[in-house]
Write a structure and sequence with these properties.
Radius of gyration: 17 Å
Low-confidence stretches: none
Strand content: 5-15%
Structural class: alpha/beta
Largest sheet: 4 strands, parallel
Order of helices and strands: HEEEHHEHEHEHH
Length: 180
């Protein structure tokens, strides 16, 4: 029997496995400001942004686990990823050369943590996707995107959940308008 796996599932699984393995190797207490990266990672460019070729994904930091009906997994992740653990994770990633966090808008908690991390000297860049609805006129989407840019986010992307639904509904035009 042949296994069929989507590109999205492959990339997600590969990325999370790599990040999980990398983070499991080091143990730290507290979350001091990161020292300059002891390890240098290759970098690429997204427009004017210099981005490490390995990115820190934000799903587990926002307690989003893709755990389907396994409700206890959410509780485990929520208890493990305390504010201190999230700050520690950001510092550890930066210490090992990861300079960019990719995350979705997940409420004020993440904003407060990232602000606190920056005040401690953290420099990790943020690529964030607005999660507002993408409907005709894009009013809510554009408002949220503007707020993110005004808050200093380095780059935005369109959330796969939104773009997949728009493509299936034949509304690729909204994706084009969102990136104009």
């Amino acid at each position: 029997m042949a296994w069929r796996i989507s590109r999205r599932a492959f990339v997600k699984g590969s990325f999370l496995t790599g990040i999980g393995a990398g983070l499991a190797l080091g143990k730290r207490v507290g979350a001091p400001a990161p020292s300059p990266a002891a390890t240098s990672l290759p970098k690429g460019r997204l427009g004017n942004l210099e981005v490490s070729r390995l990115l820190l994904g934000g799903n587990l930091l926002t307690h989003y686990t893709h755990s389907r009906d396994l409700r206890y997994v959410y509780a485990l992740v929520e208890h493990y990823n305390t504010p201190d653990k999230i700050l520690e994770t950001l510092a550890l990633a930066e210490e090992h050369g990861i300079n960019t966090l990719v995350i979705h808008t997940a409420g004020k908690a993440v904003d407060v943590l990232l602000s606190h991390y920056r005040k401690q000297g953290g420099r990790i860049q943020r690529i964030i996707c607005p999660t507002a609805p993408m409907e005709d006129g894009l009013v809510q989407f554009r408002e949220q995107a503007k707020k993110l840019v005004d808050d200093g986010v380095e780059a935005l992307y369109i959330w796969g959940v939104r773009s997949d639904a728009l493509v299936q509904a034949g509304r690729v035009d909204l994706i084009g308008k969102a990136v104009e």
